């Protein structure tokens, strides 16, 4: 595929390095400081798909611009989901293609799957166990909690009814799921779910060793999306 990269930071550079091995050609880079190209410079005649990893404040505008240009867009930016319904509506109105994942790593998507299974199973033992989450990321991360943590929290809330809401701090009531955030050095991304009783702790943990897993998943999605109108996520791609 001829891909354009929107955002040329940590993820943009990793995507550019891995794209050729996935059979993609980078035909454009759009970044607010590191390039002079704009999304409006591209059309389906010059690019097959855009991959967007920028910032919570810019992601929605970038997604809209891609859809208006008729470009299928794979978006990994987090922290903008309060606009997601609007993005979906625009995608449907224009007959476009949008792929969003809070985390493109195959391992994290298996983690999401196991998390939901464990939450449903632990619901039988909700009287004895409390559950909490922690996400740990590098000090440059601007959004909190991480998009991945929010997806995992939704998976718990949907399957463990003792928790009805989440709080990005220690829980203040039994029905609150604590989703704790730590920012430490250059940690790529670690997510933990812990069920704690008086007797023991059961823990599910994913630790990313590099950004290559995120980039590989996004490049896979970029190969899959063109020609598929609609709004998609990793479950569609991986059949989970
Ligand atoms: N879904 C997933 O699997 C993953 C998601 N992410 C998410 O992706 C996003 C980017 O992460 P990361 O690459 O680490 O962040 P970086 O800060 O390293 O890179 C972001 C890049 O986007 C640029 N940028 C900011 N605003 C715009 C804009 N309006 N148009 C074009 N480019 C812009 C920044 O430019 P400048 O520096 O000049 O401001 C920077 O080069 C974050 O939201 C992060 O949470 C990250 C990893 C995996
Ligand atoms: O900002 C990051 O680095 C990451 N962001 C994503 C998130 O918010 O979940 C995915 C990954 O954890 C890395």
UniProtKB/TrEMBL annotation:
Oxidoreductase recorded as keyword = yes
Q: Does the keyword Amino-acid biosynthesis apply?
A: yes
Location of this chain's protein in the cell = Cytoplasm
Q: Where is the active site?
A: 137 (proton donor/acceptor), 141 (proton donor)
What keywords is this UniProt entry annotated with?
A: Amino-acid biosynthesis, Cytoplasm, Diaminopimelate biosynthesis, Lysine biosynthesis, NAD, NADP, Oxidoreductase
Catalysis performed (reactions): (S)-2,3,4,5-tetrahydrodipicolinate + NAD(+) + H2O = (2S,4S)-4-hydroxy-2,3,4,5-tetrahydrodipicolinate + NADH + H(+); (S)-2,3,4,5-tetrahydrodipicolinate + NADP(+) + H2O = (2S,4S)-4-hydroxy-2,3,4,5-tetrahydrodipicolinate + NADPH + H(+)
> What does the record give under GO molecular function?
4-hydroxy-tetrahydrodipicolinate reductase
Question: What EC number(s) is this enzyme filed under?
Answer: 1.17.1.8
According to UniProt, this protein's pathway is: Amino-acid biosynthesis; L-lysine biosynthesis via DAP pathway; (S)-tetrahydrodipicolinate from L-aspartate: step 4/4
> Which residue range or ranges hold the Dihydrodipicolinate reductase C-terminal domain?
107-238
Residue positions annotated to bind NAD(+) are 31, 76-78, 101-104
Binding, (S)-2,3,4,5-tetrahydrodipicolinate: 138, 147-148
Judging by the UniProt lineage, the source's domain of life is Bacteria
The residues covered by the Dihydrodipicolinate reductase N-terminal domain are 1-104
InterPro entries tied to this protein: DapB_C, DapB_N, DHDPR_bac, NAD(P)-bd_dom_sf
The similarity annotation says: Belongs to the DapB family.
**What HAMAP family has UniProt attached to this entry?**
DapB
Q: What does this protein do?
A: Catalyzes the conversion of 4-hydroxy-tetrahydrodipicolinate (HTPA) to tetrahydrodipicolinate.
Q: How the protein assembles, per its UniProt entry? A: Homotetramer.
This protein's name = 4-hydroxy-tetrahydrodipicolinate reductase
Recorded source organism is Hymenobacter bucti
Gene behind the chain:
dapB
């Amino acid at each position: 595929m001829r891909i354009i990269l929107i955002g040329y930071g940590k993820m943009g550079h990793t995507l550019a390095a891995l794209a050729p091995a996935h059979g993609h050609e980078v035909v454009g880079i759009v970044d607010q400081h590191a390039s002079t190209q704009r999304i409006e410079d591209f059309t389906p005649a010059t690019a097959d798909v855009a991959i967007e990893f920028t910032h919570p404040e810019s992601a929605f505008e970038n997604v809209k611009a891609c859809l208006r240009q008729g470009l299928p867009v794979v978006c990994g930016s987090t922290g903008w989901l309060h606009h997601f319904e609007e993005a979906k509506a625009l995608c449907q109105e224009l007959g476009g293609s949008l792929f969003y994942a809070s985390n493109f790593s195959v391992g994290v998507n298996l983690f999401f799957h196991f998390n939901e299974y464990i939450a449903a199973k632990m619901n039988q033992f909700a009287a004895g166990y409390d559950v909490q989450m922690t996400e740990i990321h590098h000090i440059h991360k601007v959004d909190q909690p991480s998009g991945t943590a929010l997806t995992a929290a939704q998976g718990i809330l949907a399957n463990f009814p003792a928790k009805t809401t989440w709080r990005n701090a220690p829980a203040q009531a039994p029905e609150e799921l604590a989703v704790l955030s730590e920012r430490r050095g250059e940690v790529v991304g670690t997510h933990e779910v812990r069920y704690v009783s008086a007797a023991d702790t059961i823990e599910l943990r994913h630790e990313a060793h590099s950004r290559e897993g995120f980039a590989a998943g996004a490049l896979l999605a970029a190969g899959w999306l063109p020609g598929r109108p609609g709004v998609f996520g990793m479950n569609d791609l991986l059949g989970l």
